[in-house]
Specification:
five-stranded mixed sheet, 425 residues, single chain, alpha/beta
C-alpha cells in the first residue's frame, strides 16, 4: 500500500486498510497486521518514482490516489511478478492498458459520470462494490473518511454524489483521528457554523497536510496509524513536556503532534514568502501573465512549494509556479521542478492545459489548477514569452462565478435569507 502524501491520500489508503481489517481480522489463520504493509513517502513526492524498489516481488500493490501515469514504474513491478490495483482520480494523458495483472480504476479516464470524486470517493465506492460481492455492509463505516478526502481535495460541492457523501460523512464522524481532531478544534469549528465543508477544510485538513509536508517520518507514521482501527488506541508514551513516562492513546498523541508540526510549517512558509515577495517586487514578475519563481536549492523547502504557490496566487492574483533547480543524474540536464497553482478567480480555469499547450514543460501532472511541473532551465524565458502571448486576451480582472444574478429591482430577499441559513452546505 502506498498512501499518497496529502489528506486525500491518507484517507483513501485508510479506507482500504480499515475495510480489509474489518473483513479479515477475525479470521484466525490470517494475521491482518502482518499481511498489510504500507510505505510512506519521505516528502511531498507523488506516485511510484521514489519508492518503486521498496515493494517486494510477487506482492499485491495497492495505489490509492496516485500513479495512473507511472507507466515505467508499473512495468517494473509487473516484471517482478506483482499485481497492481490503482485507484485514482488524477487526469492522465497516457497510461497502461490491457495488462493481465493491472487494474486502473480512475473516474477521469472512464465513463463514470461524476468527475468530482477524489480518490477517497473512488475508493469508498469500490468498497461499496466489495460489500455487494461479499454480502457484507462495511463501506458505510468509513464514509466519514470519504467525506474528509473529498473536502481536502476541494472537490466541487455542486456534484450531487459528492455532496451526498460529504453530508452523510460529516453526520457520522467515527474515525479516531478525524473525531479527535474535530474535538480539538471545536471552538473554531463552531465559529464557522459547526461541522461543515468549510470548517473542516480550515480546521482539520491543514493539520494533515502540514504533517505530510513538514513532519518527520516518525511523526507521519504516528498520524497515519491514528487513522487505522487496529492501531489508533494503542497506548504509547506521551511526548508532552512534563508527562514523560505517561501512556496515552496513539491518536491523542498524534493530534498534539499535528498542532506542533503545523506551527513549524507556518514558520517555514513565512520565511519563504518574505524571500519570494521581495523577488517578485524587485524583478517585476507580476508584469507577466504567470508568476514564475525559479529558486535555488534550499530557498524554498520543496515540500511546501505548493502551499507557497497558493499563497502567492491569492495575494498577487496571478497563476503561480514555484520551481526549484535540480539536475537529472543521467545526463546532468538542469530542470526547474515544483508546484503550480492557478489564480482561483482567473477567467482561465485550466492552468495545466495552458502549460501543456506551450509544449515546453517536461511534465505537468495532477489537477487542472494544482499540479506538479518541470521546465528545462534553458526554456524558462521561452515559457514566459509563450504564456504571455496565450494570456494576452484573457481578462486580468477577477472573475466571480455566481449562482444567481439579480438587478436592484428584482432582489429576492427570502432567497438570500434561505442561503444564509444553509450553513451546512
Amino acid at each position: 500500500m502506498l498512501p499518497d502524501c496529502d489528506a486525500d491520500g491518507f484517507t483513501s489508503a485508510a479506507i482500504i486498510i480499515n475495510y480489509l481489517y474489518e473483513m479479515y481480522h477475525t479470521v484466525k489463520e490470517v494475521s491482518i497486521e502482518e499481511q498489510i504493509h504500507y510505505i510512506l513517502h519521505t516528502g511531498k513526492q507523488h506516485g511510484l518514482e521514489d519508492c518503486v524498489d521498496e515493494f517486494p516481488d510477487n506482492c499485491l500493490v495497492i495505489l490509492p490516489d496516485s500513479s495512473t501515469n507511472d507507466i515505467q514504474q508499473m512495468r517494473a513491478l509487473l516484471d517482478r511478478g506483482c499485481w497492481i490495483v490503482c485507484m485514482d482520480h488524477h487526469e492522465a494523458d497516457n497510461y497502461l492498458e490491457d495488462e493481465e495483472h493491472l487494474v486502473i480504476i480512475n473516474n477521469q479516464i472512464c465513463d463514470y459520470p461524476n468527475k468530482d470524486l477524489s480518490a477517497a470517493g473512488v475508493v469508498w465506492q469500490i468498497c461499496r462494490a466489495w460489500d455487494k460481492v461479499y454480502n457484507v455492509e462495511y463501506a458505510n463505516h468509513y464514509i466519514d473518511l470519504a467525506a474528509l478526502g473529498l473536502i481536502s481535495d476541494m472537490m466541487n460541492y455542486r456534484s450531487i454524489e459528492t455532496k451526498a457523501i460529504i453530508l452523510l460523512g460529516l453526520n457520522n464522524i467515527k474515525n479516531p483521528f478525524f473525531y479527535y481532531m474535530v474535538e480539538k478544534n471545536d471552538y473554531s469549528i463552531q465559529k464557522m457554523g459547526g461541522i461543515n465543508y468549510m470548517s473542516i477544510a480550515f480546521y482539520v485538513t491543514p493539520f494533515i497536510n502540514a504533517m505530510v509536508r513538514s513532519g518527520t517520518m516518525e511523526e507521519k507514521d504516528l498520524v497515519f496509524k491514528s487513522f487505522l482501527t487496529m492501531y489508533a488506541f494503542e497506548k504509547i508514551e506521551s511526548g508532552k513536556r512534563g508527562h514523560k513516562g505517561e501512556l496515552v492513546p496513539r491518536v491523542e498523541e498524534a493530534v498534539r503532534i499535528c498542532t506542533n508540526v503545523k506551527a513549524r510549517q507556518t514558520k517555514l512558509q513565512d520565511q519563504s514568502m518574505a524571500l519570494l515577495e521581495s523577488r517578485i517586487r524587485d524583478n517585476h514578475l507580476q508584469d507577466n501573465a504567470i508568476i514564475l519563481l525559479a529558486c535555488e536549492p534550499g530557498e524554498v523547502e520543496k515540500n511546501i512549494a505548493g502551499l507557497v504557490a497558493n499563497k502567492i496566487q491569492a495575494k498577487y492574483q496571478h497563476p503561480t509556479l514555484v520551481l526549484t533547480k535540480s539536475k537529472t543524474p543521467e545526463d546532468n540536464k538542469v530542470y526547474y521542478r515544483g508546484s503550480a497553482r492557478n489564480y482561483s478567480m482567473s477567467e482561465n480555469q485550466d492552468l495545466r492545459q495552458v502549460c501543456l499547450m506551450t509544449d515546453i514543460p517536461e511534465y505537468c501532472q495532477g489537477h487542472a489548477n494544482a499540479f506538479g511541473c518541470s521546465i528545462p532551465e534553458d526554456k524558462l524565458d521561452e515559457f514566459i514569452k509563450v504564456t504571455n502571448e496565450l494570456y494576452k486576451n484573457v481578462s486580468k480582472e477577477p472573475v466571480y462565478w455566481v449562482d444567481f444574478v439579480w438587478t436592484k429591482n428584482e432582489i429576492d430577499g427570502q432567497t438570500i435569507l434561505d442561503i444564509a441559513e444553509a450553513k451546512q452546505y
